[in-house]
Amino acid sequence: MRVGVPKEIKVQEHRVGLTPTAVREYAAAGHEVLVQAGAGAGIGAADEAYVAAGARIVARASEVFEAAQMIVKVKEPQAVEWKMLRPGQILFTYLHLAPDPEQARGLIESGCVAVAYETVTDERGGLPLLAPMSEVAGRLAIEAAAFSLRKPAGGKGLLLGGVPGVQPARVVVIGGGVVGTHAARMAVGLGAEVTIVDRSLPRLRQLDELFSGRVRTRYSSVATIEEEVFAADVVIGAVLIPGASAPKVVTRAMLKKMRPRSVLVDVSIDQGGCFETSHATTHDAPTYEVDDIIHYCVANMPGAVPATSSHALNHATLPFGLALAAHGEHALVKDVHLRRGLNVHRGRVTCAPVGRALGLAWISAEEALGMG
Fold this sequence. Notes:
Elements: E1 2-5, H1 20-28, E2 32-36, H2 47-53, E3 56-58, H3 61-67, E4 70-72, H4 79-82, E5 90-93, H5 101-110, E6 113-116, H6 131-148, E7 170-174, H7 178-189, E8 193-198, H8 201-210, E9 216-219, H9 222-231, E10 234-237, H10 252-255, E11 263-266, E12 287-290, E13 293-296, H11 306-327, H12 330-334, H13 336-339, E14 342-345, E15 348-349, H14 352-358, H15 365-368
Parallel strand pairs: 1-2, 1-4, 2-3, 4-5, 5-6, 7-8, 7-10, 8-9, 10-11, 11-13
Antiparallel strand pairs: 6-14, 12-13, 14-15
């Protein structure tokens, strides 16, 4: 198959869909890889490294989209990109369609076969292609919070971990999944006082054992969230419903009872955000204030560390991408976990949470693929 890798064009996005190491694997498997010039510059991978790995460099994104049978990206296609997609062309990338009706319409109209990293599953019920970026984002969330607490950044002038004799910051993590676990790990490592709130008792037991009592765990309820948020210096929003819009767990009314100049970090912003007052920001202007509460809502947090992120992502996506390159749409028929990633198929939505979130008709991936 001919596989194309365009340069990412979303604001402040420096990751790349395929690293030279991954390209070499595709080439070794007999596939032709086209890479747009400069696509790997953000991770320090020169065009020459791609050529040495077996790729062919082309100057423009239009050449990649026109020639490739499968497009491999990182972030969701922008308007100029989805207009270049064609019927039957496979798109393999993050999509996050639930809060993005415009992109959903663009993909439907293109007739492409859009497979979303974030809804591919594994045999344990996990999300293996979302996990590496969740790990990165969870750790970055604490770095962002620590910086935002500083006085020059507009914060209350609080050191996250405190010092001997001075109380550390109180960090509340809402959601005990991959993001929440890695956020808690970073916060504990810096000496903060950490509480994790989650609705799964089995998960809370796992977290209690994982952290050996160094974090508090609390069952999630409206009352618990209010109590913890009102006492917190930092709140990390790490709530996920795969493929669907994130629920709003912190309301506008709650902000007025929070400690002034506290920090909200919404890692769920790609799925619409889990704070009522959240809206997407960029690395150029990452924060804003509502009711004297600082909001950090960067929609592509792992893009701040593109080298780490790109390699971590490629390690996870490579076997799935190679399967798609080898078998095309039949790879979706063969592998139920990869099939869960199918969000749009030749003009029809094939992911129920996306259809429900956007009010669009949808069919099952199995029906779209003619599996009966």
